[in-house]
């Protein structure tokens, strides 16, 4: 589904990703871990199309299409959604507008008519309830005045409604207390499906207790230096990253 | 030709109206005719009219309105506000479409042409005839309007909806409403002035509104201007406030080829406070001008002003907000802000928040910003699949919503929001989304 080959990315002339390779197949859940400054957030930013990242080499393809040639919104419509580490506050844009505009954009892409109002409201209410969010939330501005936990729940809510093929979650666990983490994890787990892939970028092993990945990768120095199954997370938790980095250096 | 050369032409157009009404009124009108003969229409050399040239308006030949039937247009343009409703077609009261309902004790709502005598002690008390040539012209020749008279402690729960509709006429019409609101001690009311009309209407609305608030009175005033983009619209709102009174103004300016709104507020006694909210949205070659002036004439008075402008295409906006703190008006607070979004390279805004302070113990702030949309918010929306034009539209509407969301009447709030969404540049059109 997603194929990242020898990706090299610079930010302000400093090379952050130095030949990164990653293959995500449909239905798989991957976790990308690594020390601070390894390039974890750069990877998700480049896949989503954020400004300020220069791709100097390599490629990213999604279902065979060249992602780097796609506009930001085309990437989302093709089925790639990024859950932000720091969701932006958008004063004055009500959540309900964002959700409806985004869902209709996707439907248009699929050749479907705009969703009828009652059907839309039913869908949204159901997902809100699942994420333990109040209906009044719909008429609040996107993320404005939200707590850290509410912002992250909001990211997952958008995923539940937009049903991407590939959900890319950037530090979705940061700043969450355990109760909020459980709700977020439940939301993510409900997305798991044989046709859908999930990539979590995280600093902490704790998240992986709640969303158990199929594959774990260690990103360090701009490359993936080790990959393994879920047992790797426990080893990292116990031993830190240094041994992996040393092993890779040899 | 200078503007003064059109003065006679204007006077002869309105002359038949000057003799309408009881003797005290025709005397008052005659005085205003003399004012107008001296001042003429305001020219661009006057500081207050520097950015708004009314020459194109001055040259036009306007006729006095005649009674026409426009039931369909009235129904189509109505905001459907629950409450009292007075309809004016081309400025003339239309009883068939109006509903004066049951008025609570101490409240009088009277169409003005038929009840001029009731307004004898109110008319011209707040708005000076020489405020501008337009004010003088209105006093000399207003045709109709309304008197809302609230006795002490009278509370009108439902809003008074004043619907002004302009029809398309072969000869452009001069529409001159006069609106008088007099609120006694602790009286309360909400008044909506709504201006709209046929798409082809190319008349001139010249409106004067006077509001007098006694001690503790509360008036909320909505001015919703959605006239056709062929229409000229000049209006002035004059407010006089006594102790502990509160006046709130929501001024939404969407229509008009050239629209000018003046607001003048006199805070005359301690505890008086005023809130001025405004939104203007220009497309095409629209010229939208808002001038506000708040005089803090007494200590412990407050003013808060928040105006937002969105200018697209070759439209031009003018904002001039002035707060004057007079000597001995200590312990006052005056806050002012004006923010503008320019959506096109050819759009223009001339903005000038002004503070003049002659007292030393005051809290004042003012600022104006002009800019473009927030890039990180744009990215966040696009990353959800929303195309760039729509994302820009949503953010532009969000900017407007900071003002719209303070509208407290649900029907008005929703329809103004929809109207704003529908007037955003075509590719940003969000109609149906809100």
Task: Describe the largest sheet of chain A.
Answer: 6 strands, mixed
Structural class of chain A: alpha/beta
- Largest interface, by Cβ-Cβ below 8 angstroms: which chains and how many residues each? A-B, 32 and 29 residues
Strand content of chain B: 35-45%
Organism (chain A): Oceanospirillum sediminis
Keywords (chain A): ATP-binding, Nucleotide-binding
Protein name (chain A): Fe-S cluster assembly ATPase SufC
Family (chain A): Belongs to the ABC transporter superfamily. Ycf16 family.
Structure notes:
Chain A: Belongs to the ABC transporter superfamily. Ycf16 family. Chain A: Residues 2-246 form the ABC transporter domain. The complex is a heterodimer of chains A (250) and B (434). Chain A is α/β, with parallel strands linked by helices. Chain A has a single domain (2-249), classed as Rossmann fold (3-Layer(aba) Sandwich), CATH 3.40.50. Chain A has helices at 40-48, 72-78, 95-109, 117-130, 148-162, 178-191, 206-210, 231-239, 242-249, and strands at residues 2-11, 14-24, 29-33, 54-62, 65-66, 80-83, 90-94, 141-142, 166-170, 197-202, 215-220, 223-228. Chain A has a 6-stranded mixed beta sheet, sandwiched between helices. The longest helix of chain A has 15 residues, at 95-109. Chain A is globular and about 60 Å long. Chain A starts with a strand and ends with a helix. Chain B has 2 domains: 3-269, no CATH class; 374-434, no CATH class. A 10-stranded mixed beta sheet of chain B has the order 2-1-5-8-10-12-14-16-18-20, with helices on one face. In chain B, strands 3, 4, 6, 7, 9, 11, 13, 15, 17 and 19 form a 10-stranded mixed beta sheet that branches. The mean pLDDT of chain B is 94. The A-B interface holds A 48-51, 71-73, 75-77, 81-82, 84, 87-88, 90-93, 97-98, 100-102, 105-106, 109, 114, 141-142, 158, 162 and B 374-377, 379-388, 390-391, 394-395, 397-402, 405, 430, 432-434.
């Amino acid at each position: 589904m997603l194929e990242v080959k020898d990706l090299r990315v610079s930010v302000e002339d400093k090379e952050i990703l130095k030949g990164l390779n990653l293959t995500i197949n449909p239905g798989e859940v991957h976790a990308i871990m690594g020390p601070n400054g390894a390039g974890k957030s750069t990877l998700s930013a480049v896949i989503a199309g954020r400004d300020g990242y220069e791709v100097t080499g390599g490629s990213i393809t999604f279902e065979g299409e060249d992602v780097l040639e796609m506009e930001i919104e085309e990437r989302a419509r093709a089925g790639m959604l990024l859950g932000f580490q720091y969701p932006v506050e958008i004063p004055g844009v009500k959540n309900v507008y964002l959700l409806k505009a985004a869902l209709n954009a996707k439907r248009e892409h699929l050749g479907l008519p705009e969703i009828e109002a009652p059907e839309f409201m039913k869908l949204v209410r159901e997902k809100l309830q699942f994420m333990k969010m109040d209906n009044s939330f719909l008429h609040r501005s996107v993320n404005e005045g939200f707590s850290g936990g509410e912002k992250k729940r909001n990211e997952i809510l958008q995923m539940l409604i937009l049903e991407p093929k590939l959900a890319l979650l950037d530090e979705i666990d940061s700043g969450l207390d355990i109760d909020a983490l459980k709700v977020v994890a439940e939301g993510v787990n409900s997305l798991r499906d044989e046709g859908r892939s999930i990539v979590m970028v995280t600093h902490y092993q704790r998240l992986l207790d709640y969303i158990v990945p199929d594959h774990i990768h260690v990103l360090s120095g701009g490359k993936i230096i080790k990959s393994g199954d879920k047992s790797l997370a426990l080893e990292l938790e116990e031993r830190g990253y240094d041994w992996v980095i040393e092993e890779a250096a040899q | 030709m200078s503007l003064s050369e059109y003065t006679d032409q204007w006077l002869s157009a309105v002359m038949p109206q000057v003799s309408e009404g009881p003797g005290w009124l025709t005397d008052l009108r005659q005085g205003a005719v003399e004012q107008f003969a001296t001042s003429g229409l305001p020219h661009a050399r006057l500081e207050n009219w520097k950015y708004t040239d009314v020459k194109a308006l001055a040259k036009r030949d306007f006729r006095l309105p005649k009674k026409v039937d426009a039931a369909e247009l009235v129904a189509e343009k109505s905001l459907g506000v629950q409450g009292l409703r007075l309809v004016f077609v081309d400025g003339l009261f239309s009883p068939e479409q109006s509903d004066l309902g049951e008025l609570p004790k101490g409240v009088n709502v009277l169409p003005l042409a038929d009840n001029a005598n009731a307004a004898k002690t109110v008319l011209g008390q707040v708005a000076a005839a020489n405020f501008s040539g337009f004010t003088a012209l209105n006093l000399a020749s207003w045709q109709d309007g309304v008197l809302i008279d609230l006795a002490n402690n009278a509370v009108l729960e439902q809003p008074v909806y004043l619907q002004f509709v302009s029809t398309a006429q072969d000869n452009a019409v001069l529409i001159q409403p006069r609106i008088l609101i007099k609120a006694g001690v602790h009286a309360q009311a909400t008044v909506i002035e709504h201006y709209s009309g046929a798409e082809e209407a190319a008349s001139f609305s010249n409106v004067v509104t006077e509001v007098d608030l006694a001690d503790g009175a509360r008036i909320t005033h909505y001015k919703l201007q959605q006239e056709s983009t062929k229409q000229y619209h000049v209006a002035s709102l004059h407010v006089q406030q006594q102790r502990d009174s509160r006046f709130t103004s929501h001024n939404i300016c969407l229509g008009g080829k050239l629209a000018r709104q003046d607001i003048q507020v006199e805070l005359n006694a301690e505890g008086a406070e005023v809130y001025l909210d405004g939104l203007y949205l220009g497309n095409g070659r629209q010229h939208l001008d808002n001038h506000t002036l708040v005089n803090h004439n007494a200590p412990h008075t407050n003013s808060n002003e928040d105006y937002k402008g969105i200018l697209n295409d070759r439209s031009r906006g003018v904002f001039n907000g002035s707060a004057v703190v007079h000597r001995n008006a200590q312990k006052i607070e005056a806050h002012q802000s004006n923010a503008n979004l320019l959506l096109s390279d050819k759009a223009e805004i001339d903005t000038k928040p002004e503070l003049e302070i002659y007292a030393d113990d005051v809290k004042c702030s003012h600022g104006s910003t002009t800019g473009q949309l927030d890039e990180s918010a744009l990215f966040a929306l696009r990353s959800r699949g929303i195309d760039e034009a729509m994302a820009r539209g949503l953010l532009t509407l969000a900017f407007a919503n900071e003002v719209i969301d303070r509208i407290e009447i649900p029907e008005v709030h929703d329809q103004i929001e929809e109207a704003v969404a529908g007037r955003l540049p075509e590719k940003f059109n969000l109609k149906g989304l809100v």
